């Protein structure tokens, strides 16, 4: 068994290093001084923060990613519970219709989504950014698969005690599905954090830009200064790294369970 572990480590280590290499290069380049020598100084980071309103970009990204993650967890959990546990006419056909939306390219919906928020007067606002990101079809599928793996014993016991469907869902099923909920929330947060096209279309003023869009503008201003660009990229990436480190144990538990039921 130990020999197999060493073989696996030897095979995985180069792949892990290849994945980490770009991030390590970015961090090392972000601390290079004007002479090109690595020095542990925050000069490049201070220059990046002073060039553009990065704190404002950070707030906008947190509002978009955090708001969308919370909304998608709530909407996906309610819909997934209905598809996994409730019985109603046409349930499976409705679920297949929902899944069919996954084949539609996101870019096709950009213009209709913009026209919708423009008609409501929500362009360049948090409402415009968030209103089209409240539901995740993939999240519904993911949590449905997770709910299907949960035993029905506690659910049946709650019904015998007189609990209604909402009570069972809120007090029994959601606590049991905590790893799946956290996993979906993390993946939704990451997906929205790195979103570029929709925030670019839905916002106009500099104060409403998110980090990804602000980073592109920053690249235009500092195209000849790679260390400062790398510092800005580290600032953009660091919150994702922190969130993932905090929630990784739930992701490790949540993904295998959701995949164990077809």
Write a structural description.
The structure is a single chain. The protein is mostly helical and 262 residues long. The chain has a single domain, classed as MetI-like (MetI-like fold). The protein is built from 13 helices and no strands. Helix 1 packs antiparallel against helix 13 and helix 7 packs across helix 13. The longest helix is centred in the last third of the chain and has 34 residues. It is globular, with a radius of gyration of 22 Å. The model has no long low-confidence stretch (mean pLDDT 85).
What's the level 1 CATH class? Mainly Alpha
Work out the helix count. Answer: 13
CATH level-3 fold name:
MetI-like fold
Tell me the count of domains.
Answer: 1
The whole-angstrom Rg is 22 Å
- Write the H/E string, N to C: HHHHHHHHHHHHH
Tell the overall outline.
globular
Percent range for helical residues? over 70%
| End-to-end gap | 31 Å
Total DSSP E strands = 0
The SS-based structural class is mainly alpha
What would you say the CATH architecture is?
Orthogonal Bundle
As residue ranges, the low-confidence spans are none
Question: Which oligomerization state do the chains in this entry correspond to?
Answer: single chain
Tell me the β content: under 5%
Major sheet size, sense and barrel closure? none
CATH superfamily: MetI-like
Q: Would you tell me the overall average pLDDT?
A: 85
């Amino acid at each position: 068994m130990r020999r197999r572990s060493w073989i696996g480590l030897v095979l995985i280590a180069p792949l892990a290093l290849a994945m980490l290499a770009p991030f390590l290069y970015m961090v090392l380049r972000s601390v290079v001084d004007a002479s090109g020598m690595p020095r542990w100084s925050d000069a490049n980071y201070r220059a990046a923060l002073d060039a553009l309103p990065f704190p404002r970009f950070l707030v906008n990204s947190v509002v978009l990613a955090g708001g969308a993650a919370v909304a998608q967890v709530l909407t996906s959990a309610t819909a997934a519970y209905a598809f996994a546990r409730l019985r109603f006419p046409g349930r499976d056909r409705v679920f297949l219709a929902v899944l069919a939306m996954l084949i539609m390219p996101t870019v096709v919906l950009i213009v209709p989504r913009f026209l919708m928020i423009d008609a409501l007067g929500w362009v360049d606002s948090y409402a415009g950014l968030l209103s089209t990101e409240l539901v995740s079809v993939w999240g519904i599928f993911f949590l449905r698969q997770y709910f299907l793996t949960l035993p029905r014993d506690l659910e049946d016991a709650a019904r015998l005690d007189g609990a209604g469907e909402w009570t069972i869902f809120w007090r029994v099923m959601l606590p049991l599905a905590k790893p799946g909920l956290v996993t979906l929330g993390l993946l939704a947060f990451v997906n929205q954090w790195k979103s570029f096209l929709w925030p670019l279309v839905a916002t106009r003023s500099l104060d409403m830009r998110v980090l990804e869009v602000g980073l592109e503008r920053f690249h235009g201003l500092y195209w000849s200064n790679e260390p400062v660009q790398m510092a800005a990229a580290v600032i953009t990436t660091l919150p994702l790294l922190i969130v993932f480190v905090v929630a990784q144990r739930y992701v490790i538990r949540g993904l295998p369970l959701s995949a164990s039921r077809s």
